[in-house]
Design a protein that fits this description.
heterotrimer; A: mainly alpha; flat; disordered N terminus; disordered C terminus; B: alpha+beta; two-stranded antiparallel sheet
């Protein structure tokens, strides 16, 4: 991924990063801050700027990942929950939770980055020792009995198949009945049918039949996907207000509130 | 050379046992467990293990060392001569692992068996391409299916351990000190 | 920490030259002529030959020796311990093909010509030792060099076909029907 934010008065060069958490950590490092909640607050503007610059070059999935982190940071900043929090109502509680989750995931990712750096060191030292693994000398080899494979051609093919088979036979679990895997394209099909019939639905109405959180996430990504492919328009009067999804295939009228990563 | 029917040289003295181990280790083409050496030499396993440890400590002045891994013991060249050794033995180049590949390996190593979705959640990015590359290079391998999500599970391979010079997964450094309470973060 | 790209260790002192020779000779599969060692270590041939003779004389107490043959120098087990070495070689595990060896042979048979690195990636383990065994047992042979990686290619032999009772490689049973869940086994 290459980044060239062409923004007046804002020009920072970073190393290549491999995702939103990596970018956030690099920004924190650039400001010579420890990974603290204060750091999250300080680097929010930089992060938003980079995310905005990503729009044209990244695919939907990448952009979505950055947007999720950016949105969380913005929420936190807007609610002035950083650096210190005063809990006043349920919205504040939800934001505090979002902050803790983001913070924990960031620390988790940093731990694995540190392990990866250690792996790099282990790798470069391990490659320096070459094991003795020599052939038998002819006189010793001659002591061995004639080689036998112990299988016929069909048995040999079975062994080959076992080696090339990618996974052990899948075990049938019943758990999936309770926690279904969710495909975004499927959710798009479900939602576009309903929207075409109803014309407009709120996001809450679209999710009314969801039994699991993961389905809601799938529908939200589906809405983003439909927005990108210009099947729907989005309207939201203010932050945290009801999100209205309007069926508007190929319309130029794309609503008033949805973030556009390209700008 | 004598034949197998000759009387076996006695190994009562430690020096003789050490030398016999050296002789056998010269012809191995894979790491040998101490138990197998004990059987061949008809000596107590504990005595053979002690001898192997004594031998391993005795080569400080030499260009080789006797290394112990999970699978057993074998000789290896000493690290500082790698530039010379490689001129003889390197068969095709081993490409360096990218940072993305190392980060992904780190998550798989500590979370195994683990689905791509979980690895992806920890790194905050799609890891499908990296996981494919790591699979193609034999560093991770599929390991069944997650009962709850139906996602394919992955684990690291022996080749991964060898690549890092580790004898077993137990030798991976503990990650806990680096981590906040993370067990449930992925679920969020 | 050093890497192979670092400056080469200096071999000005005799002790360092000796150790470098030990490192190379311990891991090289075939006897190495003194002239080749001199070239790779970038030392005068006379100095290297003197070092090899000095080394060969220094192992009296050890179970191995540095032997000079017509093809060059190599480590070997001391003759006195031949009964143990032979017993180890004839040990059940060594005399017949292991499951690991059969699996490696299967990859070579169905992917030939193929490099060791590729076979290793498919199996997820280092296959160097097993490939040497299969070569020593006459079941596979070298078959040129891979243009892309520079790695040595291997193929199966007539002896392999004979042992399976086949007239030609075309008679190998296809494995695709055994892998109905795989779209394209070449991807693996």
């Amino acid at each position: 991924m290459t980044l060239a934010p062409e923004r007046t008065g804002f020009q920072v060069t970073l190393h290549n990063f491999t995702g939103p958490f990596d970018l956030l950590l690099q920004l924190i490092g650039r400001h010579e801050l420890d990974v603290t909640e204060v750091a999250l607050s300080r680097v929010t503007d930089d992060f938003i700027a980079y995310t905005a610059a990503l729009g044209g070059s990244a695919d939907l999935e990448e952009t979505t990942g950055f947007l999720v982190v950016a949105a969380t940071l913005l929420d936190l900043k807007a609610a002035r929950l950083l650096p210190s929090a005063e809990v006043e109502d349920e919205d504040d509680l939800a934001l505090l939770e979002a902050r803790d989750v983001l913070f924990a995931r960031l620390l988790q990712y940093r731990a694995y980055q540190q392990v990866a750096a250690l792996f790099r060191e282990l790798e470069s030292s391990a490659r320096l020792r070459y094991p003795r693994a020599v052939s038998l000398s002819p006189e010793l080899a001659s002591l061995l009995p004639p080689v036998e494979l112990g299988v016929d051609a069909a048995g040999f093919a079975e062994i080959a198949a076992a080696v090339f088979r990618p996974a052990p036979p899948p075990t049938v679990g019943l758990d999936h009945l309770h926690a279904p895997s969710v495909s975004v394209p499927e959710q798009v099909v479900i939602m576009s049918g309903r929207l075409e019939a109803a014309g407009q639905l709120t996001f809450a109405e679209l999710c009314a039949d969801c039994e699991h959180g993961v389905e809601v996430v799938g529908r939200f990504l589906g809405v983003l996907e439909m927005y990108r492919s210009r099947q729907v328009a989005l309207d939201q009067d203010e932050a945290f207000a009801e999100l209205a999804v309007r069926w508007a295939p190929d319309s130029e009228d794309r609503g008033t509130a949805a973030p556009d990563p390209g700008e | 050379m004598s034949s197998p029917d000759d009387e076996l040289p006695g190994l009562g003295r430690d020096a003789e046992l050490d030398a016999a181990l050296e002789a056998v280790l010269m012809v191995v083409d894979a790491p040998v467990p101490a138990s197998q050496l004990a059987e061949v030499l008809e000596q107590p396993a504990a005595r053979v293990t002690a001898a192997l440890e004594r031998l391993a400590g005795s080569y400080a002045e030499h260009g080789f060392e006797l290394r112990r891994t999970e699978e057993g013991w074998r000789y290896a060249s000493r690290a500082r001569f790698a530039p010379y050794v490689e001129r003889f033995v390197l068969d095709g180049q081993r490409a360096r692992l990218t940072r993305a590949a190392l980060e992904t390996l780190a998550v798989v190593a500590y979370r195994q068996p683990v689905t791509r979705a979980r690895v992806s959640a920890v790194r905050g990015v799609n890891v499908d391409g990296v996981m494919r590359t790591l699979t193609a290079r034999g560093l991770i391998v599929e390991a069944g299916v997650d009962g709850a999500t139906g996602g394919t599970l992955y684990r690291t391979t022996e080749l991964f351990l060898e690549r890092l010079g580790l004898g077993s997964l137990d030798e991976l450094p503990p990650i806990a000190p680096l981590l906040p309470e993370v067990d449930d973060i992925d679920e969020l």
